[in-house]
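[SOLVED] Need 3D model of a two-part complex

Original post:
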Amino acid sequence: MATGFRPVSDARQRQMLHPQVQAWWAALDCGFAPVADVFEECLYEALTSFSKPQMEAYIEAARVIGKLGRGPEPLLAFLEEWPAVVAAIGGDQESILPEVMAAIRAMQKSPNSSSITPFLQTLAAVARRWPSADQLRVYIDVALDLMARTSGSIHGHHTTFPSPGLPELFRQAPHLASLASTAGLKNWAEYGIRNYADHPERQEDYFRLQSADSRAVLQRERHGTLFADVERKLDLYLRALWRDSDPLVPYSTAFDELRKPIPYYDKLGLRVPDVFDDFHGPGEPVSGLDRYRAVLAHMVGHRRWSRAQIADNWSPFQRMAVEFFEDCRIETLLIREYPGLRRIFLALHPHPRADACDPETTSCLRHRLAMISRALLDPAHGYSDPVLLDFVQRFHAALAVGESSTAEIAALALAYVTRTRRQSDQLAKLHFDDTVIDYRDDNRQLWQFIEQGDEEDAFDVERKLEPGEELKGLPPRHYPEWDSQSQTYRPDWVSVYEALHPSGDAAQIDRLLQKHAVLAKQLKRLLDLLKPQDRVRIRYQEDGSDLDLDTALRSLIDFKSGSTPDPRINMSHRTDGRDITVLLLLDLSESLNQKVGAGGTAGQTILELSQEAVSLLAWAIDCLGDSCAIAGFHSNTRHEVRYQHIKGFSERWDDTVKARLAAMEAGWSTRMGAALRHAGHYLAQRKADKKILLLLTDGEPADIDVSEPGHLRADAKKAVEELNTQGITTFCLSLDAKADEYVSEIFGKRWRVLDRIERLPETLPSLYLELTR
Amino acid sequence: MSDYRIHREPFYQPQGNEVTLFEAAYQARLPVMVKGPTGCGKSRFIEYMAWKLGKPLITVACNEDMTASDLVGRYLLDAGGTRWLDGPLTTAARIGAICYLDEIVEARQDTTVVIHPLTDHRRVLPLDKKGELIEAHPDFQLVISYNPGYQSLMKDLKQSTKQRFTAFDFDYPEAALETQIVARETGIDAAVATRLIKIGHVARNLKGHGLDEGVSTRLIVYAATLIRSGVEPRDACRMAMVRPITDDADIRETLDHAIDSTFV
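Solution:
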């Protein structure tokens, strides 16, 4: 359009076809030619649903938007999208228009006015997913909250920089709306705001759904049945009902819009989507879990009964028909095995109308195949096409005796294709409605190709590790971290690497024990007292397993001499075993290298004292026969928490363990929560009446990548609570004289602060004995 | 003594040649151990053999609180003083019965040691408290049952105890045989029995994956009994075959699904 030749004001003079539209055009008072071009069309669409007052409000709002000074785009977006928005929420314009206008005004007043256009452009798509005024209101609130909290102010220049995340949020909004509820959106946005408020690039990545944690958080907020939640059930289902134990591998459905993967299986396992919404079709609803089961049953059926066919001589149409027929064959066999599956399959299987596709103009191949597929499974299909009925009958005849075979059914499918072929099957316009059966896999295992493609087989080259690069240690385990501000977990936030502690000189520990020989003797006495007496006799019982002859005789004498006899003449036994498992977790952070002040032990570092104390304790526990493990930890940001095994539960207190203990070194920081969780995961696997995690630390949790002081403390507290729910008692012995402020916050009542560190070697073993007495 | 006799033939469906083997062991008065998962028919087999051999059967269900005196006997108080009361093992040795110690691993190991002198060539039972030495009756035989499926390391027999017995290994019967057993025992229709067995196998597939033991033949018989008395099959299966064996919600749901898919 040659706007350059005409003054802009010319558009106001544009003639509309309808006089009423003309009046509204005048009311809009707009000089943009592109708007004038589409105005009439927009209004006709709006008129189909708007009442007169609604129409006036619509025009008035449009007038305001046109006067924002942002060019024609916001106005165009509004005029085009708004009727669809109102239609989506059921015509209730009055309740939502003021909110939208307020949001636009807020954006206009802030540096974020460029976001107005994307906001309006995606509003209709969002409204279709969240079709109520309340949901839209939450959406707008979330957006405004994001805007207010991420608009930049650097060095006191208030709100000078636009929010980097806001336009991205609007662009992603329709997609987000299809995946999550408004509450989910809120949590997801909240996470992004909190963690990336002062990091523009990362914030942008987050709201563009490009960063890994953005996807992880969103995954958590999705609606439907998440694979992660039902994985164990599905595993059990496969194993119990189908005796199949292949691993299940989820693929993401959220971020693969183009490929739209469907289930399949290969030698690595059964591939299933990571989430299934409940299915609400024309029939009865099917839960997400049942959809998973249908997918798995179908794939198991293929693995059990399908044989790969040579594909080279068949056309794509023929192959498609064979797939449909073979799918039906295995489903028939599955239903034979578990009749209840029919209900699920039929509820998920589309039921195309016989006349839905016009063979004159459209290729009806898929439609025909979906129809026969329905008919093969559903006795009450209601189709009357004689050819179809004939083939249904032939299919059932083939399956009447035994399982038939892929080859036999393929022959039947080919015959069906030949009988029903039409010229129009070649047409480019393909009928797709009601022909997608989404619980079936992609049948890649059904085909084998004799001739490979012409391309070089560069894809099959095995990937090798680079020479010289060896896999060291185990892959990391990821643990969440508690975020006390939002009261949520940050998913997979911390990486814990575990390894065996390197070894040193075992004799060193023996020397240490030698040094504390006197103390050891005292301990030994205590230990003997504590040692379990496995069977203890309980005397003087009225009821018991055995007659206690001594007391019985005494009673008898009493009785015979005329006084009241003591009726408690039985005895019984009780067992008095100790069933305790303890894990001693040592904080090996840098601060352990500090020297301890004056006194007899002057010059010793805390580390050395810890070594002595731990040796004594380990020896004592070994004497008692309790099962015990020792591990140390330190951290270097959330990406590297090291957890080192010094003694395993099944290891004896021998030279290998002593050697590891002797080599103990300190360094880095104290990320306590992750170490507690990891230690707890080992303890949880032990079978014991009492599980104790004894933590020896010299300071509060801290790490160099965390600036917020209370964060790791709150996380440690949460970790202790988690352990508590697993039946693990956590006890902390702190060497930090100033620890009182925080240890009680983290450990509740289960802690002790040691003021005189020099006494650690005596205190630690006796503390343990007290705890377990 | 006639209290301990078995007068009616118990239904027992042999799975192999165990009946002949047991008879041979009895002829030589060898102690017998019957191993196998719970509810697979161990006790029924012993009952059947006692009936077949025409010998009295004394059964003792062992438990953790059982002491040696519960087996051997103890002094009780009487008006005139103390009186000795024989325990089941002593009674069996005196009258020549088959003494069947059911689930022997449940008893504490020091308790089970009292059976040792009865199980070797001596065939005597010393009653130390009474100062008596009982020579076992020529018809006496000791049979124990034991479930090796327990995961617990604590619940195992001492080598010295194990080595005194000849042993049978029992397991749940084959599907066809089990169907026959369930149908015969409860009088249920064979088609329903087949489905019940199928659900039983579903649960047995989960052994070691959250279930310590699968559904036993006994539980299947319970379910069949319930169905026979008019309970809806799905409810009967849930009540008899799922709820007793697991508290794990995931497993329960999987088994429930199997039931719903089998009984439509």
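Edit: Residues 3-221 of chain A form one domain.
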